[in-house]
């Protein structure tokens, strides 16, 4: 066999570099497998030494990790992944305190009529009008070109519910948070960026390098990122505008998310200590921009996807459709009387909302948490303090112990949330403990109240008005399956939710 020198380019540095690389890889593998604080945790060899399996399943296979892990659960190691989150509890407390009042239930109720009801009326109006009269630029079309139906027509009018409800969710979160923000392209932009998350999780340095690349170069090499960069610039302009108004003492018609974070009079630590005020001032620019972008991304496609799942399941089940329609019609004599507080008291509608959140959580993947001192024990395996562990909401929501009574966990069944006996009440309490569509703890979803308001308002109004909605032929539940790209998305190539309708029942 030829010596290794003959297989490499001339020059001894190639040999030295190769030996160093091989030595480093060997050292890393041995250390992680046999000398890591978690080396005693059993599991597949490759998963215990590298992040590459995560990159493969979530990056290359686009979000399949949460579907693979149940099969490996018996042997998969509990490992410490790279976290893309705020590391400092103090920093998180400041950021959260500035935004909590803005997304509180009280704030949502105060703006119900101004924003949520207005946007819901707009969505229902699109279903009513656009599907009854063909227009060139609309989310509706007819099966045959030129087949125009007048009001009350019964033709196969097709409404693109997939895009409409996502635009609805984007409109609400952006107007609620930013007042005049133009979100026409944000939905597409945030979807493009999600594809990078698995790579950032595996190679954190890529996130830093990506931030150094000039925008013009990014757009040239990666054209799909143009809309994302334009969206970021829009947020920057809005931040600058609000900061200028605050400095000039201009009072806005309605306070936005930027006012809550920038205005020094609202500093949550202003009366606490000098260190807190300094911390807030130093990070204000970073906090305002990053949190504004995160709020929009988290509140847009996630809620729209959950609403779409609920509509699909209700429309595909005549029994569920009929029960929901009857409950809504009995509760509200006319559409003008529909309101959020009353909708939230309806048991069957609540069951529909909870089932939609259970089967289509906005964050279906793995959210990390840290083991606190003095440590913990799981299945007789000790875990030292500081260990990062995670659990998937999607997996918890499909737990056969909690959700397998009566119906399989995969079945959409609003009745599982309605108690009829004392045993049902006990079972529902267990289900509630396993329901984590918004996460739990101090870092749960900031916009939970707003998302719930959108779900109740949209479903309540649509199914009060329409009794003849039909899902376009060919779409199946597999098209609504979730993949884990940080936020939950449907698989590539999945059919989009399109609805056939012909009339509104008043």
TrEMBL record:
Amino-acid biosynthesis recorded as keyword? no
Q: Which Pfam families match?
A: p450 (PF00067)
SUPFAM superfamilies reported in the protein's UniProt record: Cytochrome P450 (SSF48264)
UniProt GO BP? antibiotic biosynthetic process
The record's section on InterPro entries has:
Cyt_P450, Cyt_P450_CS, Cyt_P450_E_grp-I, Cyt_P450_sf, Cytochrome_P450_monoxygenase
User: Quick one: which residues bind heme?
Assistant: 445
Residues annotated as transmembrane = 13-30
Give GO terms: molecular function aspect only. Answer: heme binding; iron ion binding; monooxygenase activity; oxidoreductase activity, acting on paired donors, with incorporation or reduction of molecular oxygen
Family classification: Belongs to the cytochrome P450 family.
Designated name of the protein: Cytochrome P450
Q: Which organism is it from?
A: Neurospora tetraspora
């Amino acid at each position: 066999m030829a010596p290794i020198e003959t297989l490499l380019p001339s020059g001894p540095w190639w040999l030295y570099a190769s030996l160093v690389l091989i030595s480093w890889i060997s050292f890393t593998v041995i250390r992680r497998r046999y000398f890591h604080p978690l080396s005693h945790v059993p599991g597949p060899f490759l998963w215990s030494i590298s992040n590459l399996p995560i990159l493969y399943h979530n990056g290359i296979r686009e979000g399949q990790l949460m579907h693979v892990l149940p099969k490996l659960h018996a042997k998969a190691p509990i490992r410490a992944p790279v976290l893309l989150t705020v590391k400092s509890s103090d920093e998180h407390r400041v950021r959260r305190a500035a935004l909590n009042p803005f997304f509180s239930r009280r704030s949502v109720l105060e703006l119900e009529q101004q924003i949520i009801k207005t946007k819901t009326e707009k969505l229902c109006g699109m279903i009513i009008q656009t599907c009854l009269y063909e227009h060139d630029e609309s989310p509706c079309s007819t099966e045959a070109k030129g087949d125009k139906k007048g009001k009350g027509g019964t033709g196969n009018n097709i409404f693109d519910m997939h895009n409409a409800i996502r635009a609805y969710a984007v409109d609400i979160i952006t107007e609620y948070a930013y007042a005049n923000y133009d979100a026409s392209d944000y939905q597409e932009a945030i979807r493009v960026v999600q594809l990078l998350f698995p790579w950032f999780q595996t190679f954190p340095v890529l996130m830093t390098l990506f931030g150094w690349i000039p925008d013009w170069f990014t757009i040239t090499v990666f054209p799909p990122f143009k809309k994302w960069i334009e969206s970021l610039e829009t947020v920057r302009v809005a931040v600058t505008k609000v900061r200028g108004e605050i400095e000039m003492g201009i009072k806005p018609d309605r306070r936005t998310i930027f006012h809550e974070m920038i205005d020094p009079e609202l500093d949550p630590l202003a009366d606490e200590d000098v260190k807190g005020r300094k911390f807030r001032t130093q990070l204000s620019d970073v906090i305002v921009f990053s949190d504004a972008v995160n709020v929009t991304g988290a509140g847009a496609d996630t809620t729209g996807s959950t609403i779409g799942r609920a509509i699909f399941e209700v429309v595909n089940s005549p029994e569920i459709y009929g029960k929901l329609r009857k409950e809504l019609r009995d509760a509200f004599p006319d559409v003008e009387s529909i309101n959020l507080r009353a909708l939230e008291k309806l048991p069957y509608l609540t069951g529909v909302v909870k089932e939609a959140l259970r089967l289509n959580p906005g964050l279906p993947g793995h959210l990390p948490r840290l083991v606190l001192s003095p440590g913990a024990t799981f299945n007789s395996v000790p875990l030292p303090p500081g260990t990062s562990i995670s659990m998937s909401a999607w997996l918890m929501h499909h737990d056969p112990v909690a959700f397998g009574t009566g119906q399989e966990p995969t079945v959409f069944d609003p009745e599982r949330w309605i108690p009829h006996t004392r045993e049902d009440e006990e079972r529902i309490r267990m289900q509630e403990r396993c329901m984590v569509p918004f996460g739990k703890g101090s870092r749960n979803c900031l916009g939970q109240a707003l998302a719930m308001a959108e779900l109740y308002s949209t479903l309540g109004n649509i199914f009060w008005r329409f009794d003849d909605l039909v899902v376009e032929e060919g779409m199946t539940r597999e098209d609504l399956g979730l993949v884990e790209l940080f936020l939950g998305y449907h698989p590539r190539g999945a059919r989009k939710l399109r609805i056939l309708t012909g009339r509104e029942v008043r």
